[in-house]
Amino acid sequence: MDKIILITGATSGFGKAIAEKFAAAGWNCIVTGRRADRLNALVDQLQKQYQVQATSLVFDVQDRQAVFTAINSLPEAWKNIDILVNNAGLALGRDSFENANLDDWDTMIDTNVKGMMYVTKAVLPVMTARKKGHIINMGSVAAKLVYKEGNGYCASKHAVDALSKAMRIDLLPHRIKVTAIHPGAAETEFSMVRFKGDETKAKQVYDGFTPLYAEDIADITLYCASLPENVCINELTVSSISQADGIYIHK
Ligand code: NDP
Ligand code: 8X3
């Protein structure tokens, strides 16, 4: 099978939209996340709507053993992954440093940083052996600028930025492309997760301006993956027309 993409965090938001966009372009999709019911529905949808092959892996990216077991369990036909999208991630809380919750910090670092490293390590052997592959890491405007009460999340995304640069350097001899995409505010389940189900707080984030949508990020991801063999977008920052960076939003 050719044209295989593995997307982490495909049960909602960017990851789901990326799976749909790539499937529409003829890519066979491995979708991953923790919510098996959503993954099953997505696999069904991708196969029926776009006539591509699709399969799912259920694992928590924080669980090192589970990551390697799941990826190593892929049937032979699915092993030659061409593109890995490290998208699974989250913010938890928006508190000043002294009030931030330690468990929230642990979860963000374990998911956004260590999870991304584990998944990449598990997928890499196939890419290095084939001297071919594209790793696309979902950063954030929070990877580029620290904002008030963003401490743990901004640190985790700065780490994604640093690791993307590190991968790009170390993987040069293997001809593996590494792209970091840094989006601004986008309306997905992200803020509901960040504010732990508080719908009012989550909605406020997007009040008074038109944010990005998951579909926008999916379009950009497909574009980054559609360039000639010799061309790599190393990093790309994107926001809605109302946002300048991680701090300034015109409402
Ligand atoms: P969503 O909350 O809609 O999606 C997050 C996805 O990550 C879900 O599919 C979730 O799946 C998965 N995920 C979270 N934790 C884990 C875990 N421990 N193991 C496996 N999967 C996990 O948010 P977005 O689509 O907005 O976010 C996607 C990425 O984009 C994140 O990395 C986020 O930081 C980043 N980002 C988001 C922006 C925004 O404004 N929305 C802007 C910039 C970057 P499940 O719960 O089923 O495991
Ligand atoms: C998500 C966007 O502005 O909440 O990474 O950090 S922001």
Task: Characterize the structure shown.
There is one protein chain. The chain is an alpha/beta fold and 251 residues long. It has 8 helices and 9 strands. It has helices spanning 13-24, 36-50, 64-72, 102-130, 151-170, 190-194, 199-204, 214-225, and strands at 4-7, 28-33, 54-58, 83-86, 133-138, 176-183, 186-187, 212-213, 235-238. The strands form 2 sheets. A 7-stranded parallel sheet has the order 3-2-1-4-5-6-9, sandwiched between helices. A two-stranded parallel ribbon has the order 7-8. Strand 1 (4-7), helix 1 (13-24) and strand 2 (28-33) form a beta-alpha-beta unit. Helix 3 runs parallel beside helix 4 and helix 4 runs parallel beside helix 5 (151-170). The mean pLDDT is 98. 2-hydroxyethylsulfonic acid (8X3) is lined by residues 140-142, 185, 246. The site of NADPH dihydro-nicotinamide-adenine-dinucleotide phosphate has 29 residues, from helix 1, helix 4 and helix 6.
